């Protein structure tokens, strides 16, 4: 997000089946990746530079190194530029052929961890927000249609992705669920952000998935609402005045930075950094909170909904 931009707008033109899908693992040492900040791009570039320096010290071309290792010249070139993931079997073989003395083998565990993080990375259009969320010291949600992702159970999240139209394949569903659950670590990793959330009563009455899934979600909200760092409020359906009729939004304050706002509707999202627009949404959120039930009243309502069917 460029600091000079008053507003960063990211279109998710292919959010269902395009950029946000991770391909199944290809043949060893042939995994190409972009640099989204979550898949170990810096690590892979460092390893690539080491391979290049060791190859040049040996006096070999990329083709000659590839022939000794059983890989193509193009692959060696991509690995040296950090554009492909150096698989553990490549690191072991190259370490021996290049006489690296364990230098390349020592990176195996780091590569495995980086690949694991890449498997739960977020859709391209969501990553700017996800990065800021990890830095947040305060998060404020107004949600009129769904339970916020940070508060969803695994079963609830999976049910949402299963019903998505156009349909998502099973692999993508599991990747999306894993990514959502990974985000929730910020709620339990110290220092935890302060979280304020106002959810419409109608959202809490909709049994997404099935009744067992819904009951589990309500139970999770009660546990989360009891946290010292969480203030959970419900907006009753009988309110005659409602400041949130313009739709859902999130206010996010990264550590040491100005508050921003995030909007998401259908297949597009907006990350708003303009100070005046963020101020307006913050004032609106204050009104929404004043119109909602108190946290204590809200937890009592959620508890009462557990017996309804």
In angstroms, what separates the terminal alpha carbons? 45 Å
- Strand arrangement across the biggest beta sheet: 1-9-8-7-4-5-6
Largest sheet: 7 strands, mixed
Number of helices: 12
**Gyration radius, rounded:** 24 Å
What does this structure look like?
The chain has 309 residues and is an alpha+beta fold. 44% of the residues lie in helices and 15% in strands. The chain has 12 helices and 9 strands. It has a 7-stranded mixed β-sheet, with helices on both faces. A two-stranded antiparallel ribbon has the order 2-3. Helix 2 crosses helix 3, helix 7 runs antiparallel to helix 8 and helix 10 packs antiparallel against helix 12.
Key terms:
309 residues, alpha+beta, seven-stranded mixed beta sheet, two-stranded antiparallel ribbon, 12 helices, 9 strands, elongated, disordered N terminus
How would you sum up this structure in a few lines?
The chain is α+β, with helices and mostly antiparallel strands.
Give the helix/strand layout.
Elements: E1 7-11, E2 31-32, H1 41-58, H2 62-69, H3 73-80, E3 84-85, H4 88-97, H5 108-119, H6 127-134, E4 136-143, H7 154-162, H8 170-183, E5 194-200, H9 201-205, H10 211-225, E6 230-235, E7 249-254, E8 260-265, E9 268-272, H11 275-291, H12 295-305
Parallel strand pairs: 4-5, 5-6
Antiparallel strand pairs: 1-9, 2-3, 4-7, 7-8, 8-9
Helix pairs in contact: 2-3, 7-8, 10-12
């Amino acid at each position: 997000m460029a600091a000079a931009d008053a507003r960063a707008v990211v279109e998710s033109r292919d959010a269902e089946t395009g950029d946000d899908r991770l391909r199944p693992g290809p043949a060893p040492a042939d995994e190409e990746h972009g640099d989204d900040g979550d898949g170990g791009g810096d690590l892979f570039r460092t390893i690539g530079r080491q391979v290049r320096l060791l190859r040049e010290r040996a006096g070999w071309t990329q083709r000659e190194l590839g022939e000794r290792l059983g890989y193509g010249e193009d692959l060696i070139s991509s690995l040296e530029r950090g554009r492909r993931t150096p698989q553990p079997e490549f690191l072991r073989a190259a370490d021996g052929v290049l006489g690296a003395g364990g230098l390349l083998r020592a990176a195996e565990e780091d590569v495995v961890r980086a690949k694991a993080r890449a498997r739960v990375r977020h859709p391209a259009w969501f990553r700017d927000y996800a990065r800021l969320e990890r830095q947040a010291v305060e998060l404020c949600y107004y949600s009129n249609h769904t339970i916020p992702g940070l508060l969803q159970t695994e079963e609830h999240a999976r049910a949402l992705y299963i019903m998505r139209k156009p349909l998502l394949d099973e692999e993508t569903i599991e990747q999306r669920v894993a990514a959502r659950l990974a985000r929730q670590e910020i709620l339990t990793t110290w220092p935890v952000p302060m979280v304020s959330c106002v959810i419409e009563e109608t959202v809490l009455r909709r049994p997404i998935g099935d009744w067992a899934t819904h009951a589990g979600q309500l139970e999770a909200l009660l546990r989360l609402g009891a946290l010292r760092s969480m203030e959970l409020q419900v907006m009753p359906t009988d309110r005659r005045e409602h400041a949130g009729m313009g739709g859902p939004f999130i206010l996010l304050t990264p550590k040491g930075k100005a508050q921003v706002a995030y909007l998401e509707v259908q297949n597009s999202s907006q990350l708003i950094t303009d100070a005046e627009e963020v101020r307006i949404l913050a004032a609106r959120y204050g009104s929404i909170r004043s119109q909602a039930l108190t946290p204590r009243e809200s937890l009592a309502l959620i508890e009462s909904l557990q017996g309804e069917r």
